[in-house]
Give the backbone structure.
Amino acid sequence: PKVVIYGITTGVTGNNHYDAIMLANVGDGMAQLEGMKLVYRLKEGSERIKLAEWNTPTTIGPRSFYLLVKSEQEFGIVPDYIFDQPIAGSKGGLKLYDAENNVVDALGWGEDAPEGFFEGIPSEPIAKDQILIRTEADTDDNTTDFSLETEITLFNSGDSNPIFPDPGIDVAVT
């Protein structure tokens, strides 16, 4: 199992707080989130904010998703986790840590993405009505691994995707 940051959206027209993050298990076995945490940082020098921390057994099925959403928002899908912190689309970064505090994955966007909160080169800023979505296996370069899309589709732990790329194999997801 390999857990990665799969996608993020940071607002739609008329709602700046339509924030959602998808994680995905791109492997064939069950992935355990217990002990892991997801941290957000707006820019260099700003506070590191823990968006999520899993202290109890929580799994993501093989080639399946896990949906985290901003509190008090309606997404039309049942979230797996709710967080309180708004996320900026112009710049920022996410880091996913394992139970031993090792970085599992990182995603940064915008010119002022915080150092250490991206892999390779940060992705473009996320505009309203867009989702920054993983389109390649984890090559450790955000500009290669992610692209901006205008069709926002969210997936939760009840969803799986049989066309997920195997870790290390480049396959476009449409």
Observations:
- The chain is about 0% helix and 40% strand.
- Residues 132 and 148 are 5 Å apart (CA to CA).
- The first strand starts at residue 3 and ends at 12.
